[in-house]
Amino acid sequence: MPKPRLSSGRFGWGGITANALAAAASLGVRCGFAGTLGHGDASSRVLDELAAAGVDTALIRREADAQPIRSTIITSRRTGSRTILYDLAGAIGATTEWPPEDTIRSAAALLIDHFGMEGMLRAAKIAAGAGIPIVGDFECDQRPEFGELLALVDHLIVSRDFARRITRADDPARAVSQLWTDRRQLVAVTCGSEGCLFRAADMGAMPQHVPAIALAVHDTTGCGDVFRGAYAAALLRDRAGATAGLPSSAARTGGQATRGTPSRSRDGALARIRFATAAAALRAAATTPAESFPDRAAVNRLFAQTWPMP
User: Fold this and answer.
1) Mean pLDDT across the stretch 178-202?
2) Number of domains within the chain
């Protein structure tokens, strides 16, 4: 059997939180990251790239031996399938000491993932106690704290594969229903080219479907992360009285949000999901790094073309 040939390659930065924050920043939202990086070349490059994307890096801690997560992503040009190989050596997730509690309490929203589960849980508890909306994105449920962390999330957006893993439901709509709780404002299950299924507090009990937007696809890497960042940006835009800001799992911005306040936008959660869908479609169609995180004008144009006003 012939060995496959590598036709091209490039260095890029990303990850769940970094991509989501960069997407939100490109959409005009003030956001910051307070993770841990080292002093080596890889850490310095990630720090520079975050700053260039408009993400506040003032709260990033530096530890001598820390490393960012490194991944090798192999994409098939023939099928579009991806194989992701990752290395966690030296990577430090959210901790129970950082960021300061006052920083979390000053946030307009908190974006969490699964890396550093104890630290994530601490941040989520502080945010929940302060009435700050929590947007959750997970890929792993192996730690014992996961169930408690999951229960604190107001706006849960997960992939179909992960939803199937934790609910045992093959049907995304069924998974949405199983993941719903009285606490949730939104549950969405993203399904790639098939769009997403979601339920929202302002739209009744039946899951709704939003199809993907058919653009020429170049690379789907990071589309789910951009979807979540765009959703969070739209959420903050919609919340009455909230100042712009989207903190990461260890991030901050100014502004106190009030839990349970319904969106005042025309379509509420539906508009936010459509906005996120448009942002993810533009990410998939991007052919250069400069196009990877579309700005608000580009997303609004695609939104209006896809769902014109009656």
Assistant:
1) 96
2) 1
